[in-house]
Amino acid sequence: MFDIENELKKLPAKPGVYLMHDKRDAIIYVGKAISLKNRVRQYFQPSRSVSPKIERMISQIHHFEYIITDSEVEALVLENNLIKEYRPKYNTMLKDDKTYPFIKATVGEEYPRLLFCRKVKRDKARYFGPYTSAGAAKDTLELVRRLYHIRTCSRTLPRDQGKDRPCLNYHIGQCGAPCQGYISREEYGENFRKALRLLEGNYSQVLEQLQKKMEEASARLAFEEAAGYRDLIESVKKSSVHQKITDMGGMDRDIIALARDGNEAVVQIFFIREGKMIGRDHFHLNGVDGEEKKEILQAFIKQFYAGTPFIPGELMIEYEIEEEDIICRWLSERRGGKVRILVPKKGQKERLVELARKNAMLVLNQDAEKLKREEERTRGAVREICSWIGLEPAERIESYDISNINGFQSVGSMIVFEEGKPKRSDYRKFRIRTVQGPDDYASMREVLTRRFRHGQEEIQELEAKGMAKELGSFTRYPDLILMDGGRGQVNIAREVLASFHLDIPVCGMVKDDRHRTRGLYYQNRELPVQADSEGFHLMTRIQDEVHRFAIEYHRSMRSKVQVRSILDDIHGIGERRRKALMRHFKSLEAIRDAQIEELAQVESMNRQAAENVYRFFHEGADKKEGEFRENGDI
């Protein structure tokens, strides 16, 4: 039994991270502290002054655990990792999990290249970005390669010069073929330096050169060549539109501001690279109800820069944040250079922060209706379903289904919805092992037994290792189980749960004579539902999804059996040859129509095996044709 008062006395006065658990052992909050002893005790003091959200969190704490670190910076890093891993209910959460594209210039190579990438490494390369879309980065990359004929191959030069023929890019005039030595290292290097200047935003010189070449081509009446230069000019102009010049002293900066409305907030970032605005992006956060703007901003900075590979030298924000010093030290360590956080009060910098805030407010207003509809069809629908059966809103719902054809190759499926949305990473498939024939009740008993037995075994294993209990789809138990059926399915589920001493609400989705949901079966009563409600629509989506997942798995199992049922009957054809035949011919029909010589040429096949296959399909052809029509083409 966890005694909170007794455990509070054991807290060390050291930096670290604490994890708050509810009565079902779910992690509901993760925080860090310079002194765990002082910080955690504050939550349980009668005189505490906290936001309503944190007060609700405190009321649900059943027990807590903590991890000691050597420094506050280590605690901050660990806090970010745990928040990302567990996504606790009461932490301010960054909804978007984006990775930004960059253009990598491999300046350390003798014949350097320009590459598309999403990770910035500490190497000898230069990185340009982040670009706010992969399309923008690839368009820019294509433009620069076309202009300056930068190689795209992965050959090691000059070691591999002359070993292979030049690629297609050389023949269409988009590469100077340094792989053949057709362009000198000096000339290639000059082209590459021009390409870097373009990536840095120096468009005017490029436009002047292209304009001059277009005019010269027109004067020579080379109109096709002139049209090519005209198209390049348009491409450069289109790219230059995104590079808004801002006289910012040539530094890398991020300008961050936010707007909020109730439990939703939007953060807008302007990306300034080498003094130029190269793009912007916005991010939604939820769970901000009752928190001050500076607290929301601080939570965003920690979560965002824990996941982005590029750290600028300066962040310009709206408000002073409490953990500025520790965040600056952490970001400086990640960047490998000094990082400052500024709150500009006047001048151009202050105007840029204000512009970011206005953009954030614009996004929030534009998305407000969409977010409201999304809330109604997800979390709102869950609340509605739970209100019908008298439960608190369920965060995690699981549903199960059985699929078979006359008992053949029975399979089970488990799907998971969290906060009204499918969590496909937690879906699981079950091949029925102990049931023969079309017995859906017995099959469902097996699926549920295996699901919760796996869960208990994984929890025991994690406890033995001293690890947290929410690492897998089985270790996290549902708040509500929706069975696709009425009394029979519900009773099966309740019996299985009772055998594991689990108290999880189970509700059946009852269908009418036309196989449409008409109500919910809960605690031996059928409850009506509103057919035009969001709760009803969510139930329908859950039913459709659990059916789809089960049927797709069953279809894949049937396909495998069908392949084996034909080819495995042939003498001398084992698994290896069967797979080789299917890879080569793609279908059973093609194998049947192949001649012996064609069959013998397949990998791992010999003349005798080829003759066996040919005779199998051509001796007693009428019988084989019947099998073929039944099994179908794979």
Question: In terms of topology, how is this protein built?
Answer:
Layout lengths: L3 H6 L6 E6 L5 E7 L2 H7 L9 H8 L3 E6 L3 H15 L6 E2 L7 E4 L8 E4 L8 E3 L5 H15 L19 H4 L13 H15 L4 H16 L3 H19 L2 E2 L7 E9 L2 E10 L2 E11 L6 H15 L6 E3 L7 H12 L4 E3 L4 H31 L1 H11 L6 E10 L2 E11 L2 E2 L5 E4 L8 H26 L14 E4 L3 H13 L6 E6 L5 E6 L2 E4 L5 H34 L7 H11 L2 H6 L2 H5 L6 H12 L2 H11 L3
Parallel strand pairs: 9-12, 12-13, 14-18, 18-19
Antiparallel strand pairs: 1-2, 1-3, 4-11, 5-6, 5-7, 8-11, 9-10, 10-11, 14-15, 15-16, 15-17, 19-20, 20-21
Helix pairs in contact: 4-11, 5-7, 5-9, 8-9, 12-13, 13-16, 14-15
Extended strand count = 21
Helix content: 40-55%
| Average pLDDT over all residues | 83
Specify the CATH class of the largest domain.
Alpha Beta
Keywords:
single chain; 634 residues; alpha+beta; GIY-YIG endonuclease; Nucleotidyltransferase, domain 5; eight-stranded mixed sheet; seven-stranded mixed sheet; 21 helices; globular
